[in-house]
Amino acid sequence: MIVGNSLDELKKREAAYEIIKDSIESGTGSQLYDLTGLSGGFIAEEEELDLLQTYIGPAIFEDKLQDLGIKHMGGEKIFALNRTSSGILASILALVSEGDSVVHFLKAHPAHPSIIRACNLVGAEYKEYIDLDKFNIENNTALVIITGSTMDHQVLDEESFKKVIEMAHNKNIPVFVDDASGARLRTAIFNQKPACDLGADLSVTSTDKLMKGPRGGLMAGKENYINMVKAKSNEFGLEAQAPVILAMINALKEYNPQNLRDSISKKDKLFSFLAKSFNMFDETPTGVMVSKESLKKEVNSKVDICNLSDTDLCFLWSMILLKFQNIITIPAVSMPGASTTIRVDLSSNDSNKLEIEDIYEKIFKSFNQLLEVCVDENLSRKIIYNL
Amino acid sequence: MIVGNSLDELKKREAAYEIIKDSIESGTGSQLYDLTGLSGGFIAEEEELDLLQTYIGPAIFEDKLQDLGIKHMGGEKIFALNRTSSGILASILALVSEGDSVVHFLKAHPAHPSIIRACNLVGAEYKEYIDLDKFNIENNTALVIITGSTMDHQVLDEESFKKVIEMAHNKNIPVFVDDASGARLRTAIFNQKPACDLGADLSVTSTDKLMKGPRGGLMAGKENYINMVKAKSNEFGLEAQAPVILAMINALKEYNPQNLRDSISKKDKLFSFLAKSFNMFDETPTGVMVSKESLKKEVNSKVDICNLSDTDLCFLWSMILLKFQNIITIPAVSMPGASTTIRVDLSSNDSNKLEIEDIYEKIFKSFNQLLEVCVDENLSRKIIYNL
Contact B201/B221 with Cβ under 8 angstroms? Predict the structure, then answer.
């Protein structure tokens, strides 16, 4: 194994940084293309930044967020959180007590781990359902949770969504929606309504997912519930801070569902190109991906002997993409333990700087280079660690 | 009562905003002086802001924070949190279990409420001591907490600090220091060492208190403890986000204890001026303050009949300071329920824009105006609500 443990992963990450820093410092940073889909954004004007220096700034931004947030998510009131996970924690702290049950409905397992952790923290029983026929809300249930779109972008249909809300409300139980990517994926791509318009009492989305905002959680909902969550958040420091709120405002202003829809058609085009040359690609809602297993299989079908492990192949390809094609994908820059899947996300800001043909070309070239390099373990090591 | 409930307080706050917004929009915003000491800051260069748009930016800022943070706080490793309260929560989640005891030593009651709340959340027993002779660490204690400086800037002496750490370590119990303002107040003004240099295992400070940083918590400590806190923080979304970390870095770069020491001598000068004209002022470590009781007494000694309540007098004076002297103090702009004490903080960024003589003059003039207005309840109301 070339990258065999966490320390190796850190070394690999540092090597990737080195390349990126050199590129930024030599002034060619603008020729780097971040296609991770994870970069979010931070849009701010000079005068807005000046306002951050004042006592009044934060309050002004909080006020401005209300209209834009409600336009994006529905509901009566908006509250910004440090992360979507903070919003989940705050809601469970506010609405669930020891011994209560929390029931969660989603399209497919697994649920986001922060939901289960927060339930454990307050001492609540947690139950998870993916089948509406089996879905059951016990009488001691304090909160019903719906996940709009899973981490793997599995989207719940609107009928099931409404049915779960109806069942909860028939028992006077509030409904919280984890709509991290869903608030945009469901509405822009699947033509569904915002969760609050479907009757949810609270809904939270990630402002860095499928929009140009900072990492953070934007919550909408009924005023009384938002006030309860806000009070808990302020107690424990879960709310978003002013610089993050400012960047949320500007990302909401810039958000245009058409860009997301465009990324779908770009994705379709890229995928159709790639499918002609490769067997290893899968589609995501806004891009394409290659799992480590698929990559290993594809490589094995094209070279005689490659001794690299599947994860090493991912790291190597990601470093080749970075070093020779200026494309940033997750495995090159990720923290230890992250997924090694190679993804190209066409909703990334930088994807607009490239034609689909160029992206295809860069992927094609880099894969051929991967085939040449991967048969030589020493050379592979040199490229992965940028030696 | 003119400001008699939360709704009135919001109306008052909105009136203050109106004045500030008008001032900013008419281009005279630079003539406003924010002397609340609460504004923190957000210092960032254009190219740093550009880096925030990338996947790599956050990681680069996290790396940069290490050296600067250790220089400021000591310890082996640094971790940035969304707020000091988040750091307290994360530490207690990481180190304390149900049924454990947490023992807290501080100079004076009250402790910061987030400590007690976090103990309640995990089901730990909480005990608080201010007398070293009575201080006792039971055997089931999981964490000893020291507050370096209370919210009212009551600072613990270094000998007691070291003694408590020694007692905890004799029982192999880790020590967490809530050094919100203390990390600077203790070191710059009282010549004490950073908490980690005194042996603390973890220490957290507020980057918006007595320095030009954003609202946030900067934690230093032994690597193994920091790693435990970091893991818990990432689970629940308690860590600081990239824009906030960037602003922390620049505030740490700009931090100079001499500025803080200068604010003390400026404070001494201002206080000596004020003490000649008034009986109502008290000193804080970096400024002066007037409590509602002292204000009411001073006003009563100088006018025949004033029917305003003590809190209304505070709001009125704070609005007069804002409207006619361009000085922002907390009661004008605060959220419902906040303290109505009038403070002038000479460690505020804006205090450098004014001579001490000018500040004295503005306080003096505004107080005379307060005496004229406060006998007329209708006029007082007009000024408080900017009608």
Answer: yes
**CA atoms lying within 13 Å on the CB side of residue B371:** 13
Under a CB-based contact definition with an 8 Å cutoff, are residues A42 and B52 in contact?
A: yes
Q: Which of A39, A53, A84, A254 to mutate to test the interface with B (most CBs of B within 10 A)?
A: A53
Looking at CA atoms only, how far is residue B121 from chain A in angstroms?
Answer: 7
Q: Which residues of B288-303 are buried (b: 16+ CB within 10 A; e: fewer)?
A: bbbbbebbbebbeeee
pLDDT of res. B170: 97
Amino acid letter, residue A99: G
Task: Please tell me what DSSP assigns to residue A159.
Answer: H
pLDDT in tens, B172-215: 999 999 999 899 999 999 999 999 999 999 999 999 888 889 99
C-beta atoms of B237 and A87 within 8 A? yes
- Residue A349 and residue B53: Cβ atoms within 8 Å? yes
**Chain A neighbors of B235, CB-CB under 8 A:** 85, 113-114, 117
Residue-wise pLDDT for B109-119, tens only, equals: 988 989 999 99
CB–CB of B147/B107 below 8 Å?
yes
Query: Pairing state of beta strands A327-328 and A282-284?
Result: unpaired
Cα distances (angstroms) measured from residue B115 to each of A218, B218, B235, B262: 27, 16, 19, 32
Taking CB atoms and an 8 Å cutoff, what residues of chain B touch A22? none
Nearest-angstrom CA–CA distance, A158 and A352:
31
The token duo for A264 is 């779908």
Is B82 in contact with A215 (Cβ distance < 8 A)? no
Nearest to B39 among A36, A54, A215 (CB): A54
Burial A4-25 (b: 16+ CB within 10 A, else e): eeeebbeebbebbbebbeebbe
- Cross-chain residue pair B114–A237, CB shorter than 8 Å: yes
pLDDT tens digits, A124-178 = 999 999 999 999 999 999 999 999 998 777 899 999 999 999 999 999 999 999 9
Q: Give the best residue of B6, B31, B42 to mutate against chain A (max A CB count within 10 A).
A: B42
d(CA A217, CA A204): 6
Q: Look at strands A77-81 and A125-129 and give their pairing.
A: unpaired
User: Which residues on B lie below 8 Å from A41 (Cβ)?
Assistant: 52-53
Instruction: Specify the residue for token string 């494309």.
Output: A327
B291/chain A closest Cα distance in angstroms: 21
Residue of B10, B50, B55 to mutate, testing the A interface (most A Cβ within 10 Å of its Cβ): B55
Q: For chain B, how are helix, strand and coil distributed in percent, rounded to 5?
A: 50, 15, 35
B54: buried, middle or exposed (CB in 10 Å: 19+, 13-18, 0-12)? buried
Full-model pTM: 0.86
Residue B14 tokens, joined: 């909105």
- Chain A residues within 8 A of B52 when measuring between CB atoms: 41-42, 214
Q: Give, in order, the Cα–Cα distances in Å from B204 to each of A267, A320, B209, B253.
A: 46, 41, 12, 18
Residue contact B113–A235, C-beta within 8 A: yes
Band (A21; pLDDT cuts 50, 70, 90): confident
- On the CB side of A137, how many CA atoms lie within 13 Å of its CA? 22
Calculate helix-pair angle for A242-254, B242-254, nearest 10 degrees.
Answer: 140
CA pair distance A102, B101, nearest whole angstrom = 29
